[in-house]
Amino acid sequence: MTQESVPATDPAVYASYEAQWASVPDTADAWLARAREVAAVLAQDAAQRDQENKSPRAEVALLKLSGLLKLLGPKKYGGGAQSWEVGYKAIREVAKADGSIGMLLGYHLLWSTTANVVGTAEQAERTQELIISNNYFVGGAVNPRDNDLRITSDGDEIIFNGSKHFNTGGVVSDLTVLEGVLEGTNDHIFALVPTVQLGIRFAHNWHNIGLRLTESGGITIKDVRAPWTDALGWDAASKKPRADVLQIPFASLLLPTIQLVFSNFYLGIAIGALEFAAKYTTASTRAWPFGGDNKNSATDEFYILERYGNFYAHLRAAEALTDRAGEQLSNMYSLHSTNREGVTAQDRGEVAEWVASVKVVTTDVGLSVTSGVFEVTGARATALKVGLDRFWRDLRTHTLHDPVAYKNRELGRYALLHEVPEPTWYT
């Protein structure tokens, strides 16, 4: 199947927003307002787009028009210069309306700032200029459960070969993050490469129950080249990893950063489910006429009020915890962006445990809410045309990304033994 033959949404449907969003916001509140505007657009036909399951070219075009792809980028290149704390909240807002597009935004913000974490200062600057000034969307073929891509050196270039079962957003991306191990070593290399090239082939096999518009299918990489100067955190002359970049705790912040991306779109999906269900209940759910304490309206039913109240309380608590973790991680970046060696293993580990706590809570609460809303909406709410099911399907799909049981164990060791976790691909 060629890229041209894959059914895709048409970017022209959102062309009118180019004039409306002609300039990027200039404050944190304005950026979050922009994210809510994007969510309002996506909410209009989210259920229909989910069922059609087309490649999200229009939706990525909408993110580009809105400026949200530039939210974390430097102002001198046209970016918003916002913190991750704001970025996480923007992801959450978009995910309330469409979990798939919230996820794409989150992954893009992570991959577009990868050089800031594991690259040299020069590489970070050059990469940010490339991405922000061109308004590029960035995908990533970095699935640690698969074998690493194989990297060989050829003069001034490195060559990637291999495949991955999962690759989020790559089909609709301008740049793709590749990661592999250099032949003859145990050393990993990240690099960004143009997506549209002969050596990158997508399987177009993402036909899952949830997050259907994320293009998270397989990818094959064959003889894809990048200059040694683009090997993030490596010295191009000696072809060695730079200890002052890659062998310090700061570089491993990439992992809790993406884990908190996950939790923010989990939370957004769950809040979106409750808000969607509440509108349905007030408009369409009927009171139960055989309970012996009959009510005129579903909104007078004790069990419905009790369930909504409980869901609301738990989501508020989850949101407060998620915001606290976002603040902790964001502060670490802002305090140490120019002094990376100031981050200790203990600092990094304590932030990781804030993030692990959020992962546990948003998973548990999110699954409870997205499945439980059917109890307070009624049998008719299961109709495909309603679209309430997409919230649970989206959340159930991604919460299987890595077992939350391991996060609970990790937190148990922290609580009982005061041990911070060793950095891994999932910690």
If you had to describe this structure to a student in words, what would you say it looks like?
The protein is of the alpha+beta class. It folds into three domains: 3-136, Acyl-CoA dehydrogenase/oxidase, N-terminal domain (Butyryl-Coa Dehydrogenase, subunit A, domain 1, Orthogonal Bundle); 140-240, Butyryl-CoA Dehydrogenase, subunit A, domain 2 (Beta Barrel); 249-417, Butyryl-CoA Dehydrogenase, subunit A, domain 3, CATH 1.20.140. The protein contains 14 helices and nine strands. Strands 1, 2, 3, 4, 5, 6 and 7 form a seven-stranded mixed beta sheet that branches. A two-stranded antiparallel sheet has the order 8-9. A hairpin with a 5-residue loop joins strand 4 (175-182) and strand 5 (188-194). The longest helix is centred in the C-terminal third of the chain and has 35 residues, at 302-336. The protein is globular, with a radius of gyration of 22 Å. The two termini are 36 Å apart. The model has no long low-confidence stretch (mean pLDDT 97).
Describe this structure in a few short sentences:
The protein is an alpha+beta fold and 427 residues long. It has helices at 17-20, 28-43, 46-52, 57-66, 84-97, 99-112, 114-118, 121-134, 243-246, 254-284, 302-336, 345-372, 389-398, 404-417; strands at 138-141, 149-154, 157-164, 175-182, 188-194, 200-202, 219-227, 234-235, 240-241. It has three domains: 3-136, Acyl-CoA dehydrogenase/oxidase, N-terminal domain (Butyryl-Coa Dehydrogenase, subunit A, domain 1, Orthogonal Bundle); 140-240, Butyryl-CoA Dehydrogenase, subunit A, domain 2; 249-417, Butyryl-CoA Dehydrogenase, subunit A, domain 3 (Up-down Bundle), CATH 1.20.140.
